[in-house]
Structure formats: structure tokens, C-alpha cells
Amino acid sequence: MKYKIARIAIIGMICIFIINYLFSHYDGEEYSIENVEDYVRKVCEIGSVPGMSIVVLDDGQEYYINVGYADKNEKVEMTSEIRCELGSTTKAFTALGVLLLEQDDKLSRKDSVRDYISWFHPTYDGKEVTITIEDLLCHTSGIPVWTIAGLPAGTVNDEKLLENTVKGIQSVKLNSLPGTVHNYATINYDVLALIIENVSGMPYEEYIDKNVLEPLGMSNSYFRVDDVKVEQSAQGYRYAFLGVRKYDAPTFYGNTAAGYLVSNTEDLSIWLKAQMGMLDADMTEKLSRAIIESHSYPIDDEQHYFAGWNLYDTYYCHGGNNPNFSSQVIIGRTNNKAVFALANIFGSAQTKAADGIYRMMQGETVEIGFWVDGYSLVDLLCFIGFLFEIYITILLFEKRGRKKYTGIKASFCLLMAAIVLVFPYILHYSYFALTVWCSPCLLIAIAGIEICFAEYVILYIYSRKKEIYGGKYHGI
Predict the structure, then answer these.
(1) What share of the chain is helix, strand, coil (3-state, %, to 5)?
(2) N or C: which terminal CB in the chain sees fewer CB atoms within 10 Å?
(3) Residue 170 has what DSSP assignment?
(4) What is the pLDDT of residues 110-122, one digit of tens each?
């Protein structure tokens, strides 16, 4: 009876969690530009976002929206001066470095990567192929998306980490012939960083700082190159155990060019103005041309990505996610409207907020409706999965006296346990990568599955011993 009560209690808990989650992720209010801050607050509330900072440019008007905390534990409020990691919106800065070198006739986007990295010999369908710099800029190199899972952790103090990061994909088979298919792979921009270093003769961070950040006047922006610089930015968080938890992600110095510029919305206001041709500060003509060129690439049905931007007819944009930070930028082509949102959590709330604001600036009324952050949902499903595994464990223990543990079933359990254990590697993800990028509930759920299978096998072995040594099977 007590086992039945425990099982009913678990099912009840699962139902309560699901119902509460569904109701807490719905909002039926309508929002316009007049109550835009209420909209952002509601998105952060639904998404359990610790803090968000947004800069908005609307026909010459500039304003900031700051919600929540840069550090929840210390009650440090989020402001436009608080710095966050940009994630993949860093790629547009890296691309400018390449375009500036091209203007100096030090490289051409049509050149082979091998011209600047002699040991770089990618293969497709068993044959060596040529990846061009333009392929990297457009994410059409054929390098698989999952290569992000193989990024080695380390800081600027680890010798040749950028080079070793790029060398890590030498044996990877390309997914497609270079130049034919858009396939977003963050490591493309790490390869570009190594090219910048080899051509310029200086570290990637130093080159971008000297030729992009300083000329723009972005004095509050820097690259995260070691663990010390984490202290100069907001506290990062991630979804875990049906909430958000403080998370200090490891440093990936080899991936700096693809995701580890640290900035605040005050500096990013300068960045937006530079993109829109509205910056008052003196900017070199060469940098101005490179910025315009970065989002003037021809758009067609097959290709709409270039130089760190997703390009569309009326606007261009990009999102970014690091293990504990996120960003979203949207800039209009046909109007003087732009928005850049930063959040100190890995997720999609910043995209929801930026998209809604951009639509409001164009006169639309926006409704959040039922909205779920995918990463929050994964956390919920993994937590529920773990509870269900406890349910199965109790059920197996409750039925331990019944003769149902056959050798075939036990063998099947061992096989399934092995498959579950190696499944991440089949998808090219290591457990280290899952630890960094996923909710810890996922690892607990995997461990729970292994325990359930192991329990079944143990029960079978125990019952066989009873049969052999007891003469007659009496259960456990």
C-alpha cells in the first residue's frame, strides 16, 4: 500500500509541475510602444530571466530598458553599464577584422584557407576540398554544427589554444561541399580568427581592439580571455531544477572570436549607430566601408548569411548564446530603428524581447500569448523524467516478488543502458559538453535511466540466485 501511495504522490507532483508551468507561461495582455517596459518585464518574468538590459534606437530617439538583477544573490540591479558576454553576436566584430584586412590587400575572401593556414586540409566524400574565407564568413564551409561540442576549455595562458581549437576539426568530415549549403557552425569564426592572427602578426583580440573597438569608441568592451575577466561582467545563470541557478561557465579562449566579446548596452548603442550610419564620432573611412559592406551582401533564397549577420530585405539581425549569457540584435534597413538586448542567462528571452520591441516601434500591438523558452522546457522535461524514473524504481521494487525478471529482459536492459550511456557520443557530444551547455537535470535524468536498468538486472540476478540456491523461487 505504501508503494502505491508513493507512486500516486509522484504522478501528482508531475501533474502539478506541468499545470503550473503551462499557466505561468501564458500572458494575454496586449503591448505597444507606450508600455514597452511592461512587455520586457513580463517576458523576463515568464522566462525567469535574472536580468536584461536593452538599448533601443527609434528614429533618432535613444533609450534603455533595464530589468532585474546583474547578480540576484547580491541584489545588484541590471543597468546599461553592466557588461555581459555577447555570444555569437561577437561574430560581426570578427568579420570586420577580415574585411579590413581585405581592404589592405592582405587577403581576399576568395582565397583558400590553406593559403593562410598551411596545415588546414579539409575533406569531403573522401577527397580534399578547398574552403575559402568567404565560405567561413557565410557558414557554407561544410563544417558540422556539432563541432561546437568539441571546443577545448582553456584561457589565454594555454599555449596555442586557438590553433589547437582549429586543429581539432582537421579529421572532421564535412557535411557538404564547401560553398553549397549554409550550415551554421560557430568554429568557422575561430578559423577566421586564426587567419587574422597569421596575416596581421598580432593576437586576434589586439587586432580587433585596435582596429574596431578603439576607432568606434567602445571603451567599455573587452574580450574574455581568462577566468579573471569574468569578475568584470554580470553574474551568469542557467536553467536548472525548475528555476535559474548561478553558473560560472568555463573559459573557451579558442572560441573567443565566435562568442566572447563582453560589452554593455551603452557601448552597443555606439555599435548600432555605426551600423546605421548615425555615429557622430570620427570613424575611419576604411572601417565605415567595412561596416556597410558587412550587411550589403547579395541575398537569395539559398544564402542570407554573411559576416556575422542574418540578412533580410528589410532588416538584418543576429542572436547569441553562451552557456550563461545571451544576446539579440535587430537593425532595420528601411527605417532608423534598432534594438540590442542582453541577458545574463542562456536562453531565448532576449530574442522574444527584442523582436517584440522592434515590432512595436513599427506601430504593431504585440501579445506574448503562450511562450516557452526551449531551454527552460528541456529543464522541466528532464526533471519530470527523473521523477518518472523514481516512479519506475518504486514499481520494480513493489513487484520484486513476481517472477518476471527473465534473462531476455535483463539482457535487453543491459543493452539499453549501454545505448543510453553512449548516445551523446553518437551525436558527437561529450559529457563535458552536456555539463557546460545543458541543464544538470539532463545528466541526472541519464543517471536515473542507468539506475533503473541496473535495478532490473540486479533483481533478475538476485532472483536467479534464489532459484538456484533455494531450490524453489520465492522472490527476494
Answers:
(1) 50, 20, 35
(2) N
(3) T
(4) 999 999 999 999 9
